Structure formats: structure tokens, C-alpha cells
Structure prediction request, 1200 residues.
Amino acid sequence: MTAATTAPVRDEDDDRSPEQGGGDPFDRDVLPTPPGATGALLRSLLAPMRGRVALTALLLLLQQAAVQAGPLLVAYAIDRAVPAFRVSDHGPLIAVAVGYLLCASAAGALQYAFITASARVSQDVLLDLRGRIFRHAQALSVDFHERYTSGRLISRSTTDVESLRELLEEGLQELVMTILSAVYISVLLLWLDLGLGAVAVASFVPLYLLVRSYQRRAQRVYRKRSTAIAAVIVKFVETMNGIRPVRAFRRERANDADFAVLNRRHERTNGDALLEMARYVVGSRVTANTTVALIVLWGAYRVAGQTLALGVLAAAVLYLRRLYDPIDRLGMFLNSYQSAAASLEKIAGLLAQTPSVPEPAAPRELPGRRPGLPGREVVFDDVRFAYRTGGEVLPRFRLTLPAGQTVAVVGSTGAGKSTLAKLLARFYDPSDGRVLLDGVDLRDLTGRDLRREVVMVTQEAFLFSGTVAENIAIGRPEATREEIEQAAKEIGAHDFIAALPDGYDTDVRKRGGRISAGQRQLVAFARALLADPAVLILDEATSSLDIPGERAVQRAMATVLKGRTAVVIAHRLSTVEIADRVLVMEHGRIVEDGSPDELIGGTGRFADLHRAWRDSLA
Amino acid sequence: MRTLLRLWPYVRPVRARLFTAAFVAVLASCIGLVIPLVLKWMVDGPIADRDPAGVWLGALYLLLLGLAEALLFGFRRWLVARPLSHVEAEMRAGLYRHLQRLPIAFHDRWASGQLLSRATTDLMLLRMFLAFPLTFLLVNGVTILVGVIIMLVQDWTLGLVILVPAVPVLITCVVFEKQYSRAARQAQDQVGDLTTVVEESVLGIRIIKGFGRHRSQARAFRELSGKLRGTELHKARLLATILGIIVTLPELAIGAALVLGAVQVADGELSAGTLVAFLSTALALRWPVDSIGFLLAMSQEAATATERYFEVMDAEPESGTTPSAGKQGGSREGGLRFENVTFRYPDAPEGSPPVLDRVDLHIRPGESLALVGATGSGKTTLTALVPRLHEVTEGRITLDGRDIRDMSREELRSRVAVAFEEPTLFSATVGENVLMGGGSGAEDLERALAVAQADFAHALPQGTATQVGEQGLSLSGGQRQRLALARAVVGRPDFLVLDDPLSALDVHTEAAVEAALRRVLADTTALIVAHRPSTVLLADRVALLSGGRITAVGTHHELLRGNAEYAHLMSGGPAEELEEQR
Prediction:
């Protein structure tokens, strides 16, 4: 986790080289962001609401005009209305009264309109962005998720979006308001008195430089801060999700200490950010107040010399106050801008990741399923698989699984069984060769078609929040309650579900909704059964079941899944009894291939394994 | 808003700095109010008298005041920058510490997304509250008060005119606070729900992908984020209303004061300098007044965040030792003993049957006992009682005759080692993960890895120094299970609890692990949850858990012959079937 401190410091431009100092970008919380991706993301978010952004801007334009009229009316009152009133001309003063009334009411009403309009724009942008991150994360392949930790992904869609929200809700309107009022006031000052106006405008130069330098410094700090908070989140999520072993192994103190280190790093970067801000505030205030003093000096000199009206000086002073007051808030804007920029950059980096298992450009249709034979033929056509980082897992091989065949894959851990399954489920694409389903390359199938045909049940049986019925219905969302219960009955899960406090409507996260690991696997099976796939892959999916549970699953498979193609990975050889064919894998190669009886009768590895297993049954 | 008072213990350590900062801010604001007075002095004095030296002097005053104001504002920020980050960090560390010690039942109930949003977003809101609204509600209050006094002193009629809107503005603020508070709470809860969906969709990615369900997940997400958007817009409308009122009413008052003042100046009752000073003071008060709405909104959000934070902090942590008063009777026998143990989840509905019902079980010192039962019969729950992950509802569990409630959790958990069904590895090296179970140094590590047949660890890129877990190499289920087993045995614990420790292993590895484990079990008191005959055979005796009760105890072969339920669990068919196979 030294990434935060050793990550190369960059300037504000996005001209990073894709590889920085080597190493896996996943190790640090930095994904390669293509140049300009951040800007492009922002543009694409705002582009669809161009019209509403323009409307919002117009509202603000009018609102500021109404607000800035005040001092002008003051000048008019002092220089014109007072002398006129003295000669009993009440007209100008009435005009001032009416003008002020109108401006004040308009300012309030426009303020309301502006805030609601801009909230709508920013909320829509956020909605869009949240949705994009979510969908993109979902679209990225499993190998991405295996490398990019869940904590980071979560912090992308929570804290990073949050900092963008702050920018949009508080920062952006501050910026526009500040710039707009600066323009208005500059013009008014120049119009009131060219000389005084010029001094005010000249003060923008040092202010601009200050803002620039602050921005540059703050960006570094913010990038570090965003990395630091992500590390805090990762640790937090890991602890909460593994709370049982944390307790059992008395990790509390050690975790406190680890967390303290990460937390303190965040605290430090947070403090750094606030200090940068303090420095900026001093600089900008000094500049502003010095300018005010200069203008008053010169203005007063000229009023004394009677080359300037008193009302004009008064108006100028009132305007200056308004001109410089928002400067602190400009800092606050920069504040949220910096953290939003850092966040946006990370989000852009995530969104720039392309799924390594992309959707086809020109999808192909599968032929219809043959009547009476719901299964499909699977062919591994000269497939080879190696990780991108090197390291061959499966050397080139050919394998044909005829439609309707149940194939058991056995072999020791790390033999490549799971990789084979993941290739078939298209969690990965092969490095070479093709995987064909009824003659169609998996890469040519839409995700929708593929997932309807090929379903994989893994060992980890994760349950989503919601009811048990909803969890089963993930297999086929349009399924009726009867179908859901039918699937649960067939797999032997009905009894325990019916015994839960609210039966199928029990919320798995609520009172009494505790479900054991074995029961979760049964739910996962019911899910798969409901999906009605042509090809079913079971990757050690019965490991937590007891023997009767496993038998029930096998019986269900033998009947319900009859005629479907099934690939069963299991170290429990009981599964093999229902298989038509057994593949024995070792070091990524298929070393034995035949019917269970042939292999058991032979002298190969499987015969060994089977004997050992028989013995284990005692 | 009262809940904000609960922040005091966290703020207390930095109170000196915070108070100084508030004082400095008040000072700086008041300096801002002196500036109009200098202007008045200039207009009515040197300017009216055409005195250049006086003009220079006035400008010099202005410059000095301006510089002082700038430095004080900077000083305020410098004062609070580190302390406030520290308060935020302390609160986060406190939350983390507390969560680690809350009962497991609490974690079962709370989605970790809700916990996470408290540790991040809510605490950030609190820091911002301490940095701005807390100070500035005070500073602005004082500034407004001083400003109003200055105005009243200058010209009390104009001052009163300016004060007129105060009452309606105050009323609006109070009404607004209530409504906004509700909306803020709703929004924060919705953010928590959204976080939960995000988290689940990441953790369950393989299932979602396996069934091609991104669309329905995305729909659920869209619905929730749409709701959140609605709430946020509602909040914005409330804010817009209050700001509209806060901006308009004072501005109207200033307009009235201007007209009235102009009349007075025309009548010669008021000097021009006073009017200028009066108006610049009124305008100087604009930001303090305008900002009240936004400061109140932030305070409100902070109050909600505080409430959410303390919802977790108020949950009772696991109790320490709870002396089993008067229950010292019974046997002083060694080993692990369950006496009349009844367990019901603390949040279980009234009247539901207990998970475990008067369980009596005795594992003699050095003996290992296998626990067999149908899926969902409560085996895992039973094992969780030993290290006190859950507390027994009735009855007691003793280790070598001592009630486990009389031991500190620290002591208890150092004597009992557990391998969970779901082998969780943490972000650390392989070696560190294993040595979490106790033991020290390379020797113990090697021995434990050997027992668990986890020699693959040496073949990893950096051997046992390879990072695994969330932020490291992902290992297969079987590999993780073996490391978890190594972790359980590394500290040579007196008592070992293994929850189906070999489920993910292939037959060869399982046989090898069993052989090695047998040596460990020879002199360890162990409770082993088992699904398979091979695992059962590791143990000296077997107990059958059925309907929350122990219905049979004996050797594997005894039960296989004499107990139909057991035979069914071990073979899948009726007992005779297995006999036939022999």
C-alpha cells in the first residue's frame, strides 16, 4: 500500500503515459486512463442536457443582473435622488423605491427557479453517471473482477460519485455565479468610472495566478486523498465481510492497528488539503483587501478633488465587497473541483476498461433446440488458455461433448478444471482456438442468448438481499411462484424453505432468515434448474451439501436435466456415478477420457482415485 | 439537531483549537464590520474637508484592517485543518473498533453497505459540519448582532427597518428545518441502500454473469437511484424556498432603508457618510444572513449523519465475562462439555422453536467428536457457540470444567481455534494469514502447512510471502480451505473446532490431509462438523444432531448399524443399501 506515497506526481494535464514505472496498475489504485478520457466523460455527461444547462445559465444571468442592480440604485439615490428630493422632485426617489422592490423580488424568484433547475440537471447527471458505472462494472469480465477488488469498485460508485455530487451541487453554481458576478461587476465598475474599474480588473491577474498555483498543488493532494480513502474502504469492507474469522482469531487489535495506519494516512492527506485551502484563502484575501484600500484611496482623493461623485465611490465600494466576497467560495469550488476531478479520473479509468469478453459486433443466432433433446453440443476447437501475464493454464486441446452428455471432470486442485468450465461459460475467452456451441463460436453469441443456454453454478453460493423466492427467480425472472416452488421441490430445498418464518417470502437478511452454506447451495441449484439451460456447468457446486442433499441434487439432475449437456466438476466421485463420461485432468491436460466403468476397470489414475474414494466411504 | 451534542466527546480533545478558531473568526468578521465605519469617517471627514493627508491615513487604516482580516481568516483555517481531520479519523477508527466488537448477530442484520456509508459519507459530512456550519452559525450570529447594533447606533429608525424581516425569516428557518431534516434522513438511507446494491452486485458478480442478469440488477439499481434523485430534488426545492425567502426579505428591507435614508439625507437629518456606512454595513451582513439557509441545511445533514453514526455506536458490544453466578455445580471434568445448551437467535421471532434445544454433549480431553446432521440442523450454529460468536440462551458450555462465560473472550479464543466452512483469507501474505491462528515463526508455519497439505504455498510467486485476499492473488476454494485449516492448527490449540474442513478438497489431498490431521487430533480435543464418512472417521466418536437435539452418540459403525437417520445421512439411502454394497 505504498502506492499512495510513491505514485508519481503529475501536473494538471492528462498526458500520462499508459505505463508508469512498470508494475501492475491493479496493484495500485490507478487504472490506465487514456488521455482526455476525463474531459470526454464530463462532456458526454453534460451533452444530453445542453438545453437545460443553457436555461439554468440564463436564469442565473438574470438573477445576477437583479442582484447587482442594488449598488447602482444606491449611487443613483445619493447622486441624483437626494438633490432632486431637496428641490421637491420626488420622482427619482420613487423610481429608486420601485426599482429596488422589483430587483429584490426578481432576485428571490429567480434564485428559486435557478436552484431547482440546476438541481435537476445535476441529479440527472449523477443518475446517468451512477448508472454508467454500475452497468460498466457489470459488463466487465470476471477476470477484471478477480483483479480489481470489490472495495475499490464500491468506492468508485460511492465516494467518488459523492465528490462529484458536491461539485455539481455546491461547487459548480458557485463558480458560475462567481464568474458571472465578476463580469457584471467589472463592467459596471468600468462604466461607473474607468479608472477605478481598471484597478479592480487589474487585481484579477494576481488572483488568477493564485488560483492556478492553488489548483496545481491541491490536485496532488486530492489524488492522494482519494487513494487513501479507497484503501480505508477496502480494509473496512474486508473486515465486515469476514467478521467471523476476525473474531475467532482475535484479529480485532491487529485490525485496529492496520486500520489506524490507513486511517491516519487519510487524515494526513485530508489535513494537507485543508491547509492548502488556508494558504489560498490568505493569499486571495490579501489581494482583495489591498485592492479595496487602493481604490478607496484613489477614489477618495478624487472625490476630495471633486473629480468623482460621492455616490459613485459608495457604489464602487459596495460592488468591491461583492466582487471579492465570493473568492473564498471560489476556493471552496476549487476544493470540490479538485476532489471531483481526482474521482472523475478514476471513474473514467474504470469506464475506459474494455470487457475482455466483449459482446459480438455481428451476433449469430443459435439453431433451435432439437425436440426431445434440450442439450447442445459443445466443442473445444484447438483451445489454448494462458493468463495475459503469462503462464499457460491449458495447453492446446480438442474436446467434443455431444449434446445431452453428462461429463464429469475430475483431477487435483489446480489441474485446470475450473478454467475449462469458465471457458465454456465464457467468463474467459480462450487465448487461441474457439469454443463452439452447436457449431457457433461463443464469441458470436449475444450475452442474452449465451446465458439462456449455458448456466454455471459455482461453489460460492451468494445470496442477494431480498426474499428466498427472489433469489431463486434470478434463474428466470419471469417464472411464476409455482415454477419457483417446483424447482425448489425437485432439488430438495422446499422443506427447509417452507420451514423459514415467512417461507419463500423470508428476507434472507432479516430476522430468522439465516440460511446455512448447504442450504445456500440448494438455493443456487434451484436457481439453475429454473433457468432451464441447454448446458449446465457445476463447479464444485455440491461441496457444502451433505450426502442426502447431494443425492437429491443428483436425482434431480438425472431426471430434470435429462438430455441436457452437463459438465460436472467435483472431487466427490459420487457425482461420477451419474456421468456418461469422465475426464481426468492433470496439469491442464486431459489425461484420461472414457465412461466411468471403463476407467474404473482400467489401471489409470481414475481407477486409483475411485478406489481411494470407495475406501473413504468405509 | 440535539443529536449534534453527542459529538462533544469527540470534539472535546480539540476544543481549545476549535474555540480559538471560532474566536478568531468572530474577530475577523468584526473587522469586516469596522471597515464601513472607516469609510464613514473618510466621507464625513477628510473627503468633506478636502484633506489629502486624512485620505492617506484612512486608506492606510483600510489596508491594515484588510490584512488583519485576511491573516485571521487564514489563521482560523490553519487552526482547525489538522484537528478536524483528526476528529473525523478518530470517529472512523472508533466506529471500526466498535463494529469489530459488536455481536455477530448485529452483522447478520446489517448490510455492510449501510455500515460503510456511515464510515465514509456520514463522517465526511460531520467533518464539514465542524469546519463550517458549527463555527459560522456562531460567527454569523455574532456578526449580525454586532452589525445590527452598529446600524442602530448610526440611525435607529433605519436599523429597525432592517430588523423587520428577522421574524419571518426565523419562522421560515424553523419550519424548514423540520422538513429538511426528514428529507435529509431519507436521502442518506437511500444512499445506504444504493451502496448495498452496488456491493452485492460486485460480490455476486459470478452469479449475475452466469445467469446474464445484469439487466434486472441494473433495473433494481435504476429504481433506487431514481428514488434517490426524487428525494434530492425534494431537498433542492426546500432549499430553494428558504433561500428565496432569505434573499428577498432582507433585500427589501435594505431597499426601504435606502429610500428612507435618502429622504433623511435630503432633509439634512443624516450625513451622507452615515448613509454610505449604513448601507455598506447592511450589505456586509448579506453573506452572514444569506448563508444561514445553507448552514442550517448542512447542520441538518450533520445531525442525521450523527444519528446514523450513533445507531451503530449505541449497539451493545459483546459483553465481557458474564460470571455464571451460582452455577459452579456440576462436574469438574475436563474436555469440552455442553450442558443443557439451548440457543435461539436473539432476533428470532417470538415463539419460534429454538435452533438448539437442551443439547448435552461431552468431548473428553484429547478426544475428537464428529458432529453429523442434516443440512440446516444447526451444526454450524453449535460450533459458533464455543468461541462465543453467539451466546448460549440457556445452559452452559465448559472447557476443562470452566464455564466459557467466566473466561475473557481473548483467553477463550486463544484456547479454541476454528476453521470455518467458508475459508476467508485476509489481505496479507500467506504466512501472515496462517500465523493469525497463533504460533510463531517459520517452524510452526511449516508444520501447519504440512498438516493441511498446503505445500502449494511454496510454489506461489513469492512463496509464503505472497499477498492473498482482497488485494492479492486469488486462490481456489480448496487452496483457501487448506490455508484456513493450517491457520486453525498452527497455534497447537487445546480445543479445535472444524466446520466441514475438507469439503473442497479432492480425494487424494483429502486422504493426505486426513493422515496428517489424525496426528494432530491424537492429543487435541476437537469438535468436527462432518458431511462425509471420510471426515467422520477422523473422529473417535460421532454425535447426531437432529431437530435441535443430540439424538445419538457412538462410533461411526455403531450408529451406521443402529441409527437409520445416521445411515441415511452417511450413505444417501436407507441403511441396508450400504450393507449391500459391502
Remarks:
- Chain B has two domains: 2-184+238-313, 336-581.
- Residues 325-331, 574-582 of chain B have pLDDT under 50 and may be disordered.
- Residues 214-266 of chain B form the longest helix (53 residues).
- Residues 336-581 of chain B form a domain with the Rossmann fold fold (CATH 3.40.50.300).
